[in-house]
């Protein structure tokens, strides 16, 4: 199994879920997708994560992002877990959880790391763009809950930098100044970014976020 790398086209699959059978490409359509995996149902950290994503779903919707979770257990197990999530996290689950008892998706997306645990998936986040290209992956240990505000922040960066010749600096948040990409000469940058270009170094030029 070759690991998925940034820029790769992610593989399609058809698998059962809490919302019925899903063909991934058809379900994704022209949206961005966040696919995030869990080692098993009824795990405590993951229970909090699924609730957090449900509460943040309007933020994902605003960005044309669909969210989908995965766990290696079957749909019947997932349905019971959904009840616990809704009870303990105070929110209704509003997106599907893929069932993967045959490990088909886990293998396709290289989510079984034998040195961690040969029987369950690691906790990976995949951000996939509308052309089905992998744009980001982050893998977390079982003990550390994921920061979904960071995942939204990265989506904001990806969507901005896809449309403008900029990059985003450390700790950037939507609305902050951005970096002019090094391939644009400063004279050209000043025409391209009429809000102004601040040259800190020839290779480090800042400009206000162009779509604000």
TrEMBL record:
Cellular compartments per GO CC: cytosol
Enzyme active site: 46
Stored InterPro entries: AhpC/TSA (IPR000866), Peroxiredoxin_AhpC-typ (IPR024706), Peroxiredoxin_C (IPR019479), PRX_1cys (IPR045020), Thioredoxin-like_sf (IPR036249), Thioredoxin_domain (IPR013766)
CDD domains linked: PRX_1cys
Gene Ontology terms for molecular function: peroxiredoxin activity
A GO biological process held by the record: cell redox homeostasis
Keywords: Antioxidant, Oxidoreductase, Peroxidase, Redox-active center
Start and end residues of each Thioredoxin domain: 4-160
Keyword field contains Nucleus: no
Keyword presence, Zinc: no
Family stated for the protein in its record: Belongs to the peroxiredoxin family. AhpC/Prx1 subfamily.
Protein name: Peroxiredoxin
Organism: Leptolyngbya sp. NK1-12
């Amino acid at each position: 199994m070759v690991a998925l790398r940034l820029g790769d086209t992610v593989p399609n699959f058809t698998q059962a879920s809490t919302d019925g059978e899903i063909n991934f490409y058809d379900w994704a359509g022209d949206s961005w997708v966040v696919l995030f995996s869990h080692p098993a149902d009824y795990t405590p950290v993951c229970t909090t994560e699924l609730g957090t994503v449900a509460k943040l779903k309007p933020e994902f919707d605003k960005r044309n992002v669909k969210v989908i979770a995965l766990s290696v257990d079957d749909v019947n197990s997932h349905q019971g877990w959904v009840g616990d999530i809704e009870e303990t996290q105070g929110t209704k689950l509003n997106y599907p959880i893929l069932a993967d008892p045959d490990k088909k998706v886990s293998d396709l997306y290289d989510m079984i790391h034998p040195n961690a645990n040969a029987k369950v998936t690691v906790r990976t986040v995949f951000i996939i763009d509308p052309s089905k290209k992998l744009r980001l992956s982050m893998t977390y240990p079982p003990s550390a809950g994921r920061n979904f505000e960071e995942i939204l922040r990265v989506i904001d960066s990806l969507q901005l930098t896809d449309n403008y010749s900029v990059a985003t600096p450390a700790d950037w948040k939507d609305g902050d100044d951005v970096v002019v990409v090094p391939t644009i000469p400063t004279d050209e940058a000043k025409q391209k970014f009429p809000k102004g270009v601040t040259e800190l170094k020839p290779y480090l030029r800042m400009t206000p976020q162009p779509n604000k």
